[in-house]
C-alpha cells in the first residue's frame, strides 16, 4: 500500500478502497453495562440485525477489529483495559461511544468511581446518545461512521494524521 | 404491610398498634441468650424488628440467631455513618421554601445508638419468614469488630465492602482487600465526610421542574 | 442420575475439594497455572474478572474480582431526592429494570405510611412479572450459548422484544421505565394494552415450550449441566443465595408468596417451583418454569385488574419522615432489598442496597473448588448474575 500511504493514489481508487472498508467493518464489542444489552439486540436480534449493514460483530480479538463500540459505564478501574484494547487495534481504527455513560458519565456524573466520558482516554468518532440508546440509534451511529469512512482520505488516516472530513 | 384486601378496613385498626408476639418472642430469646450484650429493641408491629447489641456480642448474637431463631439466611451486613453531612443539604434548591433545619446529632434511628459508626446486619428465617436487623455501636476511637465468617461464610464479601467503604476493621478476617475500587483509591467513599468532587466543582443546577401528579393542575 | 440427599451432596462436594487439594500436593507434581478470565469476556456477560489457579484441568482456587462496574449507587442516593433515586436504581439490574424500583418504593411507602391503591398495586405486580420475563428469557438463551449452542440466544432476543414492546407501551422506556412512584404509578395503562399483552404472553409460552424441548431436552446440554456445581441448601443459605438459585436446591421459599409487601401476589393462583438437585441443570429448569408461571400470573393480573385511582394522596414534594425501613422483593435475580434510613429530608440519609447477584456470586470461591475448567463457565452462567447487580 505504498501508493496509498504516499498520498498518490488516484481518486477512484481511494473511493473503491473506502467502499470496501466501510462495508466490512469488524466490530469489537466492549459491552459494559445496560447498553451492552441493546448492543446485543443489534447483533443478536433478528429485528435489528447489524450484519445487513456490512458489520461483522465477531472478531476473535481486538487485533482483528476495525471498530470498537464502547457501550456502558466506564469506571476508573476499567480505564487501563480500555486503553490497552485501543492500543492493540490496528490502524485505521474507529470508536463508537454508545450511551450517556460512555459519552460523559451520564447519570453517574458525580460518582467517585466513574470516568466522565470515554473520550478522556481514547478518541471517539461517533457518539450515540441515550440511556440506553435504542438499537436503532446504534444502527444510525454505524451508518454515520460508514459515511465518514466513505469520505476519508486513506493516506492521511494511515499516516496517523488528524482526520479531515468534508 | 397489610395485604391488599384489607386496605379499606384497616385504617381503624392501625390506630392501636397490636402487639407482635412472634417478634417479641424473638427479641426475648436474644435477650436471654446474650444477657448484658443485649441493649435495646424496637418493634414495628407486623413489620420489623431491630435489636441493638454490645459490640462484643456481635458474633454471639449471629450464632444465637442462626441456631435458636432459625435464621439460616444471611441477608446483608453494612454500616451506617451517623455524622450529619458536613457539606450541607445538597438538594435544598429543589424545595420551594426550604425551612431552616437544625441537625439533631442524637437522632440515631430505631433502637438508638451513641456513636458515629453503627454496624447493621440483617438475618432472615426462610421457614418462619421473619427477619431481624441487628445493630452494634462502634466506639469512635476503635473501629474494629469481630468477623462473622465463622458463622456465615457469606459475610466475607460484605465485610470487605464495609472495610473499603467505611474503614471498619474486622478482627480475624482473612482477606481484607479492596473489593470494588482500584488499589490506589484513597479514602472511604461512604463516609459522610467523603466529598463527591464533581458536585463540589459544579453545583447542582437547582430546581428545574417538578412533575405533576396525575389529575393535578399546573401552577 | 441417581437422586442423592442434601447431606450426601454436601459430602460429595467436600470430597471433590479434598481430592483437588490432595492431587495438587501428592499425585501429580505439576506447576500450578493461573488462568485469568475477563474483565471483558463473553462468558462473564459483563465485566467480571475471574482469576483461577489451576492444577491441570482442575481448579484449585478461583477468585472473582469485581468492581469494574462499581458506580457508587449507595453514595449517589445520598445526594438524590427520592423521585430521582428511582431513575438511578433502574440501572442496577438492567435486564429487569422495573423490578428494581419496586422494593425501594415499597420501603419509602412504609416510612411515609402510604399505600398504593389496589389498581396501582396490580399494575405494579404485572409490570414486575413482565420485567421478570424480559430478564429471564435472556438468561435462557445466554446459558445455552455458554454451553455451546448459539441459536437459543437469537430466539431469546427475538421473543424478548414482544415483552419489551409491552413495557414500552406503558412506561415509555424499553429498558429503564422509571414508572413507579411513591404512592402509586405515573400513569394508567394505555388502551388495548391488555389484549396485546395477552398475545405476547402466548408467544412467551410458546418460547418456553420450545426451549423445554430444544435446550432442556438436549442430551448435550444435560451432559454439560447435570451434576455440575451442586449447591447444598444449607451452604447456599449461609452465603445468602436467593431466588431461583436457592429454589433449585430444594428450598421452598419465594418472597412473592412469603413476603409481606403490598403487592397483588396473594390474589393469584400460582405455585413456587423447586428442584431437589441443586445443580446447574436444576437452576436452568427452575428459571424456565418460573418464566412460564409468570406468563400465567400476568394473565390473571390483567383479568382481575380492579378499577380505581392509580395514585394515593402524597404531597407534591416528597419528604420522607425520619425512620428506618427495609423492604425486599423477589426480583428476577433473587432477593433484592433496600434499607432506607431517613432523617426527614428530601434525600435519603443512607440507602443500603441488598442486591441478589452480589450474594449469589459470593459462593463461587467455594463452589468452583475442584471443578474442571469448562465447568467454570457452566457454573457462572447458571448462577446468573448481572454485573450492575453485583457491583452496584
Characteristic terms for this protein:
heterotrimer, A: 166 residues, alpha/beta, 5-stranded parallel β-sheet, 7 helices, 5 strands, B: alpha/beta, Beta Polymerase, domain 2, 5 helices, 7 strands, globular, disordered N terminus
Textual characterization of the structure:
- The complex is a heterotrimer of chains A (166), B (219) and C (392).
- With 166 residues, chain A is α/β, with parallel strands linked by helices.
- Chain A is built from seven helices and five strands.
- A five-stranded parallel β-sheet of chain A has the order 2-1-3-4-5.
- In chain A, helix 2 (11-22) runs antiparallel to helix 6 (135-150) and helix 3 (34-44) packs across helix 6 (135-150).
- Chain A starts with a helix and ends in a 7-residue tail after the last helix.
- Chain B has five helices and seven strands; from the N terminus they run ααββαββββαβα.
- In chain B, 21% of the residues lie in helices and 21% in strands.
- In chain B, helix 4 links the parallel strand 6 and strand 7.
- Residues 1-16 of chain B have low confidence and may be disordered.
- Chain B is globular.
- The longest helix of chain B is centred in the N-terminal third of the chain and has 14 residues, at 21-34.
- The two termini of chain B are 34 Å apart.
- Chain B has a single domain, classed as Beta Polymerase, domain 2 (2-Layer Sandwich).
- Chain B has helices at 10-15, 21-34, 58-67, 155-166, 197-201, and strands at 38-44, 48-53, 73-81, 117-125, 130-138, 144-146, 169-171.
- Chain C is mostly helical.
- Chain C folds into two domains: 1-27; 73-391, Cytochrome-c3 Hydrogenase, chain B.
- Chain C has helices at 6-27, 73-76, 82-89, 97-112, 118-146, 151-171, 193-216, 219-225, 233-238, 244-247, 255-258, 280-303, 356-361, 364-367, 373-383, 387-391; strands at residues 33-37, 49-55, 58-65, 180-181, 184-185, 323-331, 334-342, 350-354.
- The longest helix of chain C is centred in the middle third of the chain and has 29 residues, at 118-146.
- The mean pLDDT of chain C is 84.
- Chains in contact: A-B, A-C, B-C.
- Chains A and C meet through helix 3 of A and helix 6 of C.
Amino acid at each position: 500500500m505504498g501508493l496509498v500511504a504516499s498520498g498518490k493514489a488516484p481518486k477512484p481508487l481511494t473511493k473503491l478502497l473506502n467502499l470496501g472498508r466501510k462495508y466490512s467493518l469488524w466490530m469489537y464489542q466492549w459491552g459494559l453495562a445496560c447498553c451492552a444489552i441493546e448492543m446485543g439486540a443489534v447483533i443478536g436480534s433478528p429485528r435489528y440485525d447489524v450484519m445487513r449493514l456490512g458489520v461483522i460483530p465477531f472478531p476473535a480479538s481486538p487485533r482483528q477489529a476495525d471498530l470498537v463500540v464502547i457501550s456502558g459505564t466506564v469506571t476508573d478501574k476499567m480505564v487501563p483495559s480500555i486503553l490497552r484494547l485501543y492500543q492493540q487495534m490496528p490502524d485505521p481504527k474507529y470508536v463508537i461511544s454508545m450511551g450517556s455513560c460512555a459519552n460523559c458519565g451520564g447519570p453517574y456524573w458525580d460518582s467517585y468511581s466513574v470516568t466522565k466520558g470515554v473520550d478522556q482516554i481514547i478518541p471517539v468518532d461517533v457518539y450515540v446518545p441515550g440511556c440506553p440508546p435504542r438499537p436503532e440509534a446504534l444502527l444510525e451511529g454505524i451508518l454515520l461512521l460508514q459515511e465518514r469512512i466513505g469520505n476519508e482520505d486513506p493516506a492521511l488516516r494511515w499516516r496517523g494524521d488528524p482526520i479531515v472530513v468534508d | 404491610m397489610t395485604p391488599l384486601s384489607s386496605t379499606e378496613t384497616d385504617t381503624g385498626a392501625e390506630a392501636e398498634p397490636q402487639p407482635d408476639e412472634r417478634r417479641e418472642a424473638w427479641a426475648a430469646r436474644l435477650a436471654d441468650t446474650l444477657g448484658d450484650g443485649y441493649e435495646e429493641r424496637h418493634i414495628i408491629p407486623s413489620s420489623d424488628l431491630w435489636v441493638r447489641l454490645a459490640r462484643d456480642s456481635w458474633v454471639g448474637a449471629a450464632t444465637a440467631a442462626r441456631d435458636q431463631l432459625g435464621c439460616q439466611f444471611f441477608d446483608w451486613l453494612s454500616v451506617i455513618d451517623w455524622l450529619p453531612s458536613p457539606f450541607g443539604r445538597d438538594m435544598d434548591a429543589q424545595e420551594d421554601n426550604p425551612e431552616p433545619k437544625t441537625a439533631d446529632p442524637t437522632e440515631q434511628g430505631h433502637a438508638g445508638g451513641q456513636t458515629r459508626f453503627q454496624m447493621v446486619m440483617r438475618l432472615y428465617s426462610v421457614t418462619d419468614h421473619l427477619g431481624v436487623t441487628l445493630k452494634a455501636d462502634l466506639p469512635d476511637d476503635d473501629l474494629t469488630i469481630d468477623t462473622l465468617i465463622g458463622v456465615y461464610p457469606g459475610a466475607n464479601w460484605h465485610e470487605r465492602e464495609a472495610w473499603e467503604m467505611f474503614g471498619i476493621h474486622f478482627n480475624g478476617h482473612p482477606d481484607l482487600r479492596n473489593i470494588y475500587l482500584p488499589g490506589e483509591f484513597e479514602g472511604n467513599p461512604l463516609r459522610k465526610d467523603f466529598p463527591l468532587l464533581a458536585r463540589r466543582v459544579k453545583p447542582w443546577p437547582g430546581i428545574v421542574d417538578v412533575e405533576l401528579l396525575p389529575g393535578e393542575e399546573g401552577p | 442420575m441417581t437422586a442423592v440427599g442434601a447431606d450426601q451432596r454436601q459430602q460429595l462436594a467436600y470430597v471433590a475439594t479434598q481430592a483437588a487439594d490432595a492431587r495438587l500436593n501428592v499425585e501429580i507434581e505439576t506447576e500450578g497455572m493461573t488462568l485469568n478470565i475477563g474483565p471483558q469476556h463473553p462468558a462473564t456477560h459483563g465485566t467480571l474478572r475471574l482469576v483461577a489457579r489451576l492444577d491441570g484441568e482442575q481448579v484449585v482456587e478461583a477468585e472473582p474480582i469485581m468492581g469494574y462496574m462499581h458506580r457508587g449507587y449507595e453514595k449517589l442516593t445520598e445526594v438524590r431526592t427520592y423521585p430521582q433515586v428511582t431513575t438511578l436504581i433502574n440501572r442496577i439490574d438492567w435486564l429487569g429494570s422495573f423490578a428494581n424500583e419496586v422494593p425501594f418504593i415499597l420501603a419509602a411507602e412504609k416510612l411515609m405510611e402510604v399505600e398504593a391503591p389496589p389498581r396501582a398495586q396490580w399494575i405494579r405486580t404485572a409490570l414486575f412479572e413482565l420485567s421478570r420475563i424480559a430478564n429471564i428469557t435472556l438468561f435462557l438463551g445466554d446459558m445455552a450459548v455458554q454451553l455451546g449452542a448459539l441459536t437459543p440466544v437469537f430466539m431469546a432476543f427475538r421473543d424478548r422484544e414482544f415483552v419489551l414492546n409491552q413495557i414500552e407501551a406503558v412506561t415509555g422506556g424499553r429498558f429503564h421505565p422509571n414508572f413507579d412512584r411513591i404512592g402509586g404509578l405515573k400513569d394508567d395503562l394505555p388502551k388495548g394494552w391488555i389484549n396485546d399483552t395477552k398475545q405476547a404472553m402466548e408467544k412467551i409460552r410458546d418460547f418456553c415450550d420450545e426451549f423445554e424441548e430444544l435446550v432442556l431436552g438436549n442430551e448435550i446440554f444435560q451432559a454439560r449441566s447435570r451434576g455440575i456445581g451442586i449447591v447444598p441448601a444449607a451452604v447456599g443459605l449461609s452465603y445468602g443465595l436467593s431466588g431461583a438459585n436457592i429454589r433449585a436446591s430444594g428450598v421452598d421459599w419465594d418472597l412473592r408468596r412469603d413476603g409481606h409487601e403490598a403487592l397483588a401476589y396473594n390474589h393469584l393462583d400460582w405455585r413456587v417451583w423447586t428442584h431437589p438437585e441443586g445443580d446447574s441443570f436444576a437452576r436452568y429448569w427452575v428459571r424456565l418454569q418460573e418464566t412460564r408461571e409468570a406468563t400465567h400470573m400476568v394473565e390473571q393480573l390483567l383479568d382481575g385488574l380492579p378499577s380505581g385511582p392509580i395514585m394515593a394522596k402524597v404531597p407534591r414534594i416528597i419528604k420522607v419522615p425520619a425512620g428506618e425501613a427495609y423492604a425486599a422483593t423477589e426480583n428476577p435475580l433473587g432477593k433484592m432489598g433496600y434499607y432506607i434510613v431517613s432523617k426527614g429530608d428530601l434525600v435519603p440519609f443512607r440507602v443500603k442496597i441488598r442486591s441478589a447477584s452480589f450474594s449469589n456470586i459470593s459462593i463461587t470461591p467455594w463452589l468452583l473448588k475442584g471443578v474442571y475448567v469448562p465447568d467454570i463457565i457452566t457454573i457462572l452462567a447458571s448462577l446468573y448474575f448481572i454485573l450492575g447487580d453485583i457491583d452496584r
